[in-house]
Amino acid sequence: MRGLGQKLRSRDAQHLGLLAIVGTFIMLFCSYTSPAFYVDDSPDNNAFFTVGKAMMNGIVPYKDIFEQKGPYVYFLHGLAYLVSARSFILIFGYEVLTLVAAMYLTYRLGKLLRLAPLPALLVALLSPMLFLYHPYYDYGDTVEFFTLPFLLSLIYLLVLLDRHNFHASHWWYFAQGALVGVVLLSKYTLLGAWIMFYLALGVYFLVHKRWRDLGKLVGWSAVGFVMTTGPWLVYFLLTKSLGAFIKVYFLFNTHVYLTSSVAFFANLIQSTSILAQFYLSNILFFLLGVLGTLAILFQPAVFHHHFTRGLYVAVGLASALLALYGYQSGAVYQYYELVYFAFFVLPLVYFGQVFFKRVPLPNGDEPFAILGTLALSLFLVLGVNNNVTDSRVFPNNASITEEATTKPQQPAQVVFGKLMRQRTPVDQKLTLLNYGSIDMGFYTTSGAVPSTYYFQNYNITQSADPQILRDQTNVIKHHQVEWVVLNTPAGKSIKQWQGGSGRITSGNLNPGTAKLAKTLDRNYRAIAYHTQLFEGTNVTYWLFQKKM
């Protein structure tokens, strides 16, 4: 107890406590999962929550319900459903934990590079500007964001190996192996950094005949990997869904969801082009991503060995190239590129090291320096992330309603959710179909558990998989659900909306509603509609109930 008390009173623990307070405050106004927002209307977040909820109600992902992310994503959101059936409060807590972990690893990297505790803390306080940069950090709750501290732990391990002649505790390898399993079963395109790390370090140990170190690397990493993947193998075998998991998560994603079908080398060139465009799109990205990486590559202040310098660059490139492998530049959702920002942290720490050599600070904690840096950090975060304008701080903002009124309003998701819960008898299961578009949060706010395989539409063209909309239309045709939600551009009725290009917004592939109008009118009646802004476009949401 005495030792624990000393640790809690240590400067590192106090700095971690400060970072936790700062991280919680920042996330409160940057993440849509935060209670400061009326609703999280992110399509991806709600799809994850819906599948997680279905999973906790005995529905098997991939086999009984269709979605393309990995099982860890649904399991996390299933736990969130168990904590709060109609909110993302647990996810918000996990986002806070993710940001604080990333900030603390930035602090630890600073100390590892011989920054004094106070300068290391100041650099860590500035780092949220990188992790929450909009639109790369958009709504929040993405696998890319949750992977940032994982990547930073790998970068920390690289510096540690460099400092200790490529010796590390077996627990480091166990942890990295476990993280590989988690990332593999969350979004496997984010594995590039670990693939390069294991290949290069394994070859290094092999060439130098360091058999003990090679055995420790392989053995303990394998133990960690099995610990995080083995339970899922058992789950899929017990539920007889292993084939469905492989078909959807691996085969469907690689053969249908990716935008490119060109050869391997051409895809690498495409990814490289996208990465170059990213670096050249912003002076900060160029400074940290290009000049900062060059400084690390040629300055011995960060890495002492040529091998680790080259490995750091190779790991960063592998991470970036695989993350967007198979995508064309015009079809990349910008949040995919958030993983690039993990490799901005070491250059940021290095530039901080250079700066604080010229601007000395006292050995102890200086309140004015900390408060000044904290104020600057909050200012910079608001400069790169304006999500707060959609929060409760701005009542009746455009994301809530387009109605000109001073009376407090609620978004369509909350309004429709209340209506569905109120009008569904207590002894009757609430059934819902989100027709023609990605999940917009109505399953979440209503509490409905999906009763159909295709509970939403997806960012997949109808020609690539016509079965999705065919099944959704049949559900309405045979009035298999009590409630139907759909959307049109503002000013368009359901009979008028032909679909056009098929998109209402960049992330909402929609087939139109005109062809469905007669079938819908025959079996359902309109209960409510509500217009609000979604991703820069005014969208009208419609709620229909089955006719008696």
From TrEMBL:
The organism sits in which domain of life?
Answer: Bacteria
Which GO molecular function terms does the record list?
transferase activity
Which parts of the chain span the membrane according to its record?
16-38, 79-105, 112-133, 145-161, 173-206, 218-238, 250-270, 276-298, 310-327, 339-356, 368-385
Q: Does the keyword S-adenosyl-L-methionine apply?
A: no
Q: Which UniProt keywords apply?
A: Membrane, Transferase, Transmembrane, Transmembrane helix
N-terminal signal peptide: none
Q: What is this protein called?
A: Teichoic acid glycosyl transferase
